[in-house]
Amino acid sequence: MPADRARWFWWPAIAAVLLLTPPLLGTYQLYLVNIALVNIVLAIGLNLLTGNAGQISLCNSSFMAIGAYACTLLSTKLGLSFWLALPVGGIVAMSFGCVLALPAMRLSGFYLALATLGFLEITQTMIEEFPGITGGIRGMIASRPTLFGWKLGSDLALYYAFMPIVACLVLVARNLIRSPVGRAFDAIRNSVPAAQSLGISPVRTKLIAFAIAALYAGLAGGLGAAVVGFIDPVEYGTGASLRHVTFIVVGGIGSISGSLVGAIVLTVLPELLRGLKEYSDFVYAALLLAFLLLLPKGLVGLGPMAARLWSREGRVSGPPLEARGGPAP
Amino acid sequence: MSADIALQLLFSGLSVGSVYALVALALVIPFKASGVLNFGQGEMVTLGAYIALALSLTTPLPYYAIVPLTLALAALVGVAFERLFIRPLVRAPEFTIVIGTFALGLMVKFAIRLYWQDNVYSLSVPFSTNPWIFGDVRINPVFVSIIACAVALVAALAFFFQRTRAGKAMRAVSQNQEAARLMGISVERVFSSTWALGTAIAALAGILFAPVTGIHPEIGNLILKAFVAAVIGGFDSLPGAVVGGLLLGLIETFSGAIVGSTFKNVIAFAVLILVLLVRPYGIFGSAGARRV
């Protein structure tokens, strides 16, 4: 089937599933779906920064925290509408991302990992040390948003409000990867000197990458606070950042579908592992290590691998590589 | 600030700084040889403390026998980790190394937590912990023991790296692997032995620090301070790691006394980011140390 006709079939099918199936789910399942939406935004933001632009970040959860606190404080303390507080929270997180980018632009590899780890510790300490504003380690209650005068009390209503936002963010990221900015990300990931020789400014590109990742994490923070109804600072520590990294490693580094797969699988997996509740942290870390060592392309890397195995058995007959204009031996 | 308080702060600063320096050494020694920075080394500190605890609970051995036994066991753990997980990662991209060693550390921490829970245990030391009182100055003997052990270890390391064949082989490998190989040095064996050495030093830090903080699964968070110490000193310099650790301990203790303990942690990480911004190769490091 030609690609464009396949697309004609897939888009309405996906839209129908996204719109029609949620009413069939139970409350807890819907809650999980909403959590998966938040995790998708987190994974996509981090994957743009780490997978596409090649910058290690161990402080994704800090930007999530900044977005969550900014959004919640604006809407509960200042009475701002949630729909205004959410983007403002994202922008606040983005500005912090730009601040972090100042040292980060000059660093790479281990040193960048250390700088982002330092940033994470600073935000954690700040949250704990200003209990008057943030509620300290006891956290803070986040109110449910209202839309046109209706309180989005049920998880279903929240789903229908948030799903289009997340879908938009996914599409924006997908288009971004295919834009000159996305190509610049690829270039600085592969080789900074080569990118410079092509007229790409690594400083500017890294700044954009950090800003976008922080924006996505900040928006996810606001959405997550509304879904959970509570802000718990423990949820924004080193463990959380590592969880976000696990999303993209398990799903697939540097691909939108990888972010989607990773976020969804790792939202559902802990529920399946419920019987081994106390082992779940251990399983999570073991999974991360196993994927890094054995399957570095993640779950989405399995697709092409399976296709290759399939064709090696001769069921898909195609001309050899050279005949298709590939590299001659 | 009166002189006796300053003296007391100096002592506690130096002792905390000694622990930072030891953990920083445990990071820098394997890093110099293999180019792999272990983000899970903090959990080796925790593991050392727990091995000592387990030995003291299950065997009738005295403290002075438990310590060397713990160090030997920790060294074995280090060799095992190096063979199983690190060697496949040596040529991997830095992202894989960072996240892989982080995940390895977390696995150790979660395994410890599964067995011992979040309880705080104490390891009894064979000397009185009552402070020595000189006039108005009170000095905790635990602090003195930490500083004394750190000084002894640094001296032993200096001798090891300057005078012994194994130490010279490690230095040769960190300078140039190809050349070292041509001189008949087994680079793989050096990798293993630096990991054994690093893990044993981390375990020693855990044992020394246990009387101060108690033994609990979060001791490993110390690694963050060790990173700061190593960055201050320059990541590829052993004297730098020691000086950086002591400096950080003093900065923290004195600033904590002056501006209050609230911002003590923030100061350490503000120093980290500042050093990375202004002088990324630290005080003693060389600018050329860069993996391409």
How many beta-strand runs of chain A?
Answer: 4
Radius of gyration of chain A equals 21 Å
* Strand order in the largest sheet of chain A: 1-4
Mean pLDDT across all amino acids of chain B: 87
Could you tell me the CATH topology label of chain A.
ABC transporter involved in vitamin B12 uptake, BtuC
Shape of chain A: globular
Q: Give the overall average pLDDT of chain A.
A: 86
> Ranges of chain A with pLDDT <50 over ≥5 residues?
316-329
Distance between the termini of chain A: 31 Å
Query: How many beta-strand elements of chain B?
Result: 2
- Total discrete domains of chain A: 1
- Give the % helix of chain B: over 70%
List the helices and strands and how they pair.
The complex is a heterodimer of chains A (329) and B (292).
Chain A: H1 3-20, H2 27-52, H3 60-76, H4 82-104, H5 109-129, H6 131-134, E1 140-141, E2 146-147, E3 150-151, H7 155-177, H8 180-190, H9 192-197, H10 202-228, E4 230-231, H11 238-251, H12 256-272, H13 280-294, H14 302-312
Antiparallel strand pairs in A: 1-4, 2-3
Helix pairs in contact in A: 2-7, 2-8, 2-10, 2-11, 2-12, 3-4, 3-5, 3-10, 4-10, 8-10, 11-12, 11-13
Chain B: H1 3-34, H2 41-58, H3 63-86, H4 94-116, E1 132-134, E2 137-139, H5 141-163, H6 165-175, H7 177-182, H8 187-213, H9 222-233, H10 238-259, H11 264-278
Antiparallel strand pairs in B: 1-2
Helix pairs in contact in B: 1-5, 1-8, 1-9, 1-10, 2-3, 2-4, 2-8, 3-8, 5-6, 5-8, 6-8, 9-10, 9-11, 10-11
Question: Mind explaining what this structure looks like?
Answer:
The complex is a heterodimer of chains A (329) and B (292). Chain A is mainly alpha-helical and 329 residues long. Chain A contains 14 helices and 4 strands. In chain A, a hairpin with a 2-residue loop joins strand 2 (146-147) and strand 3 (150-151). Chain B has 292 residues and is mainly alpha-helical. Helices cover 73% and strands 2% of the residues of chain B. In chain B, a hairpin with a 2-residue loop joins strand 1 (132-134) and strand 2. The radius of gyration of chain B is 19 Å and the shape is globular. In chain B, helix 5 (141-163) packs across helix 6 and helix 5 (141-163) runs antiparallel to helix 8. Chain B has 11 helices and 2 strands; from the N terminus they run ααααββααααααα. At the A-B interface, helix 5, helix 11 and helix 13 of A face helix 4, helix 9 and helix 11 of B.
